[in-house]
Amino acid sequence: MTTPWGLVIGGGNGIGAACCRTMAQRGWRVAVADLDEAAALAVAQETGGSGHALDISDLDAVERLAAELAQRHGGVRGLVVAAAAFQDKYAPDALPMDLWRRIVRVNLEGSFNANRVFAAQMARSGGGSIVNVASILAHAASPQHAYGPTKAALVNMSRNFAAQYGRSGVRVNSVSPGAVLVPRVQARAPGRYAVDVDAQMALGRRIQPSEVAEGVEFLLSDRASAITGTDLLIDAGWAVASAWNIYGGVPGPVAE
Prior knowledge:
The protein is an alpha/beta fold. It has helices at residues 14-25, 37-47, 59-73, 97-125, 147-165, 183-186, 209-220, 238-241, and strands spanning 5-9, 29-34, 50-53, 78-81, 128-133, 170-177, 231-234.
C-alpha cells in the first residue's frame, strides 16, 4: 500500500508541528508548509518529510504548492490548516483596522484559499480529508474581536466544504482547541489573565499540542471514514465547565 502524503499548513510550530509529528508516527509522509521557511524545514527534517515556504493568504502561492505536490507526490490525501494570525485584547473601537484585516486575511481568506485549492484537487484525484484548526473561541464570546469571529467562520466554512465535496470522496472537519500549551502561550507573562485558566476546565488543566494532534490525525484517517462536517472540541472541558464557575466551580476529585 502506498504511504499517503499529507500537508500541514502552519506546520512549523505549535499545534501544526505537533500534527506533523503525530501524522509521521501514524504512517503519513508529511509536507510541512509555513510562513517561516526555516521552521518548516526543521520540522520536515525531523519527521522525514518535505518543507515549504508558504503565505496562506496568497492564493497564487497556494496553487503553486498544490501543483508542486501533485507533480512530486501525486497530490495529498490529507490537509491540515493550522496557520493563524493572533491578537491581543482590544475594545472594538481600539482594534487597529490593519490588524483586523491581517487576521481576516490569514485566518479566513487564507483558510478558504487552502480548502478551495486542495479540496478540488482531492475531488479530482479520488478523495481525501481536510481538518481546519478553529478555536474554542468560535463557540464563545470573548474580547478577541477579530480572531474569534474568523474562527467561528472557519467552522461554518468547513461544513460548507463538507457538503460541497462529500459525494466526491472528500471529508472536511474542524477542531476547536481550548487553551493549548504552545510556546506563544507559555511565554505570556504570569498574571495576564484575571482568573486561574486551569481552574476553568472540567479536567482542571490546559491541553498539550499532542492531544490536539491526536484528534486531528483521527479525523484525517480512515478511522473517521463516516465523519464529515463536524467540529470536534478539544478543550479539556472548558465549554462544559464554564457555567459551573458561577456556582463555585466544578467538583473536585471524588475521595476514595
